[in-house]
Amino acid sequence: MRNSSKQIRLCDCNRTQPLDGERLGSLLADGELTVHHALCRQELPLLEAALGGGGTVAVSCTQESALFSELADSVNASQRIQFFNLRENAGWSAEGAQATPKMAALIAAATALPEVEPVPAVQISAGRHLVIIGEAGVALGWAERLASGFDISVLITERAGDVELPADNDYPVWSGKPVGLKGHLGAFELSWQQQNPIDLELCVRCNACVKACPEGAIGFDLQVDTQKCAEHRSCVSACGSVGAIDFARVDVARKETFDLVLDLSVEPLIKRVELPDGYAAPGRDPFDQAMAVQGLGEFVGEFDKPRYVAYEASLCAHSRSRKTGCSNCIEVCATEAIRPAGDQVVVDPYLCKGCGTCSTVCPSGALSFQYPRATDLGNEVKTLLSEYRRAGGTDAWVLFHAAEAGAKVIERLARRGRGLPARVIPVEVWSADAIGLDMMLGTLALGACQVAVLGAGSHDLAPLRAQAGHANAVLSALGYGDAVSIVDAADADAWPQLERALWNAPLARGVARPASFRLLPKKRETLELALQHLIAEAPAAQTAAGVPAVVALKPGAPFGQVLASDACTLCMACTGACPAGALRASNDSYRLDFIERNCLQCGLCVASCPESALTLEPRLLLSDEARRARKLREAETFCCTRCGKPMGASPMIEAMIARLSGHSMFGSTEQLARLRMCGDCRVIDLMQNENSVKAWDMTE
Fold it and tell me: Is the terminal CB of the chain with fewer CB neighbours within 10 Å at N or C?
């Protein structure tokens, strides 16, 4: 454990957790470690003195971070205090007395790692322009309540009872049918169709039309009930020069932009798993509406939002030449922040909420999660595992969990259950959905015996389960067992599920020699390093059966081979479509070569093949053959039947001839035979044997 002259203040929380201060202190290469019993109460002056001394202070308590931060502010030391959690993550456990190696690892990760480089951000500015959409009575009711705090606009979508427009025209009121809502916080665009004959923007609310209507079809909400209207048009005459009433209106399209949206419709305008910030659709429940209104006020202002995902277009396997291949990221995006853009995709950073599922399912690494970056998270995992081993820990089990939802489950488990086992090392991330195959296998290669991902906070565990399935298929074949698991504990109340998953799981086998590499920014490079190490250390190598040559995987895996049937004509359309260089044309013959190591199983080759001759087979080839080009399809050269000049691959020429044989231009045997000639010979044969009149034979 290496610390740069930091003061590490541990607290056993009134002696409720065992802290071996002497042992932990002996593991420090630098810095000072002190164990307290009530740092937030009687011993608080000791922390104040430490902060006043000018050094950096790390405190192993997150429960009282507000109190400690306030104390640091009072002595101008707010930049020199940091917090980490030992109590729920290690000490409060049925195996707390055996958790010293884990504590040493957690202290090292919290105090010795370098500062992480900030993630690029986008700036969002949202004012108070709020549109309220819904039935007249409810929408206008909320408008009256919120008019003093927001710049209100109202779109009435339906009538309900005897509703009257406000006497004071303090804010715009429209009526119509919403047809679309797009955009994001600070830039929502609402479009609707004006269906009411009375244009409320032009209306002066004189109520002359209400009094003039003989059927009483116009209410004080200035909406026309077309079922009652007998088309006397007395209202039009009463409106006069104002011209707000038009029963034959053609220009009905309307649109406006807003900062915030309160959608009170029964069916929300935006139907997504993750709604955009600044948009609330609470439905008809008054309590839910009140909570939604309160939440909208928190989005007013200027914000720096992280760019959670980086996109490298050159690696993207989405499309080529209007043929769609991989659409994994588009299909799993809960915010619809990812959309097609020709052969690539576009990620809208204003809509993205940072779940990271897109980077998890991306086979090429074109999308990479940045919050944290793979390199930073990998460095933390490597530090945790190495310090855990150095302190005498064995059989480490890394538990990835989301910062908020996952931490709450762990805290509840520590308070009400057996806590985390001594060998389970929690690693906090922004979103557990971003833990993909590269991080799972990379963590195992770095020395973890097992990896678990806590699903709390996830909107869909299916992608994570698929990644774990691919990992376990490989790991089981190599003799490690099912070392990766997804724990379905949705919230803090589900802590018993986490307890059962951690305390009852069988022990998997880890690598005998942890890898020394660091996880790399490129997903495929990390996967290759991790797999090479796991294969080299595979327990199956010590068995009679040995390491298998091939591991079968399920569809969706990022590894596999391409198979070509006899229908392949070697047109090489697939080589131009392949984004990873897995398929390539040979330079010395008509041969299609395949490099399995490069294959993403994106399906672009299958979509581009005009003969439907290609199929995908997900699998992992463990031998070095995966890195070498192998023949997928080869054919003889077709030569001109007249002069012997090479014309192309024989299957391609034969396929062309077969397609043209039924055409009227090639009805005779002689005409069909010319298709087997090169361009020059075809002209010569045509001139020599064609019976039509030649220009030079024509007379006046």
Answer: C
Amino acid at 105: A
- The C-alpha angle with vertex 81 and arms to 80 and 82, in degrees rounded to 5, equals 130
First vs last Cα of the chain: how many Å apart? 105
Q: How many degrees, rounded to 5, is the angle at CA 141 between CA 136 and CA 147?
A: 115
Distance between CA atoms of residues 414 and 99, nearest Å: 14
Distance CA 195, CA 223 (A): 10
Residue 295 has pLDDT above 50, yes or no: yes
Least confident range from 539-553, 613-627, 679-693: namely 679-693
Peptide bond into 372 cis (omega under 30): yes
CB 278 within 8 A of CB 184: yes
With 0-12 / 13-18 / 19 or more C-beta atoms within 10 angstroms meaning exposed / middle / buried, residue 608 is: buried
Q: Which two tokens stand for residue 267?
A: 């069916």
Q: Where are the beta strands (DSSP E) in 325-464?
A: 338-341, 344-347, 367-369, 397-402, 424-429, 450-454
Q: pLDDT band for position 562 (50/70/90)?
A: very high
Q: How far apart are CA 506 and CA 501, in angstroms?
A: 10
Q: What is the DSSP letter of 628?
A: S
The amino acid at 521: P
Put the strands of the sheet holding 550-552 in their side by side order: 550-552, 614-621, 560-564
Q: Phi-psi region for residue 167, left (φ > 0), alpha (ψ -120 to 50) or beta?
A: alpha
Report in angstroms the alpha-carbon separations of 310 from 121, 306, 367. Answer: 11, 11, 6
pLDDT above 60 (res 445):
yes
φ, ψ of residue 139 to 5 degrees: the values are -65, -45
For 258, the token pair is 């807003």
**Measured CA distances, 259 to 130, 182, 352, 564 (Å):** 6, 12, 17, 54
Sign of CA dihedral 616, 621, 626, 630: negative
Block residue for tokens 């809208």 = 348
In this prediction, residue 215 carries a pLDDT of: 87
- Say which residues have a Cβ less than 8 Å from residue 271's Cβ, sequence separation at least 6: none
Which tens digit of pLDDT belongs to each residue from 46-67? 999 999 888 899 999 999 999 9
Which of 568, 541, 385, 526 is CA-nearest to residue 478?
541
* Contact of 112 with 383, CB cutoff 8 Å: yes
Task: Give pLDDT, residue 150.
Answer: 95
Dist. CA 98–CA 423, nearest whole Å: 9
Residue 484: phi and psi, rounded to 5, are -120, 135
pLDDT > 90 in the chain, percent: 75
485 near 455, Cβ under 8 Å? Answer: no
In 75-86, which positions are buried (b, 16+ CB within 10 angstroms) versus exposed (e)?
Answer: bebeebbebbbb
* Sign for the pseudo-dihedral over CA of 159, 161, 166, 170: negative
> Backbone phi, then psi, for 345, in 5-degree steps?
-125, 165
* Residue that the structure tokens 């079922």 belong to: 227
3-state secondary structure 223-256: CECCCCCCCCCHHHHHHHHHCCECCCCCCCEEEE
Q: Which of 314, 364, 318, 308 is nearest to 523 (CA)?
A: 364
Q: How confident is the model at residue 168 (pLDDT cuts 50, 70, 90)?
A: confident
Q: d(Cα 37, Cα 41) in Å, to the nearest integer?
A: 9
Residue 219, token pair as written in the block: 């209410």
pLDDT, average across residues 589-618 = 94
CA proximity to 349, closest of 121, 521, 187, 182: 121
Q: Is the pLDDT of residue 689 over 80?
A: no
SS (H, E, C) 49-83: HHHHCCCCEEECCCCCHHHHHHHHHHCCCHHHEEE
